[in-house]
């Protein structure tokens, strides 16, 4: 999704956004910010964190500065990318996870395609960084994942769990240490199931079967349908090729 410059009102008010983890402010056009948060007057009534006199919005309890920077980037360009590629995989994934949770917490209409497009773009980049580390630098290790906060029942958590089963792990930890990669509801039997899946052969990965595996989107999203159809075609072609061999 490319953001067209003529769709942005550059004469609109500039909102100064304060987030957690930094004293720096993010400056963003009001019209773009309201696409995610809704009318700031309503936001003020609900949360009491917007000052219309100074045009300052305090999101320090709902978003980290680095994650919100990615959201602002997406609002202007329709793309997700990290400026500092030398920071290492843990820092990069932390920023992406922060951005995902900020978008999830702040969006006023979770049925809107606009919101799902943002979180899906974040997940696409997160998945790509893990499964294609050669494009970004160092590979992610199991120890790296243990350093990244996970919120239960979210798409980043689901992907990290699947990566444990299907991914190209670069280290081996004791089974009891793997508990950190699962939701709070997980039990010992869940851990055993995962380990058995890995020992039994992983097969085709979820992200290969369906590029939209970790997406949240409106039913009937044309983009997701097209990508899923492409994945099915590739899978069918691979199956037929294997049968010929």
UniProtKB/TrEMBL annotation:
Residues 11-84 form the BTB domain. It comes from the Eukaryota. InterPro entries: BTB/POZ_dom. This is BTB domain-containing protein. It comes from Hortaea werneckii. The lineage of its organism: Eukaryota, Fungi, Dikarya, Ascomycota, Pezizomycotina.
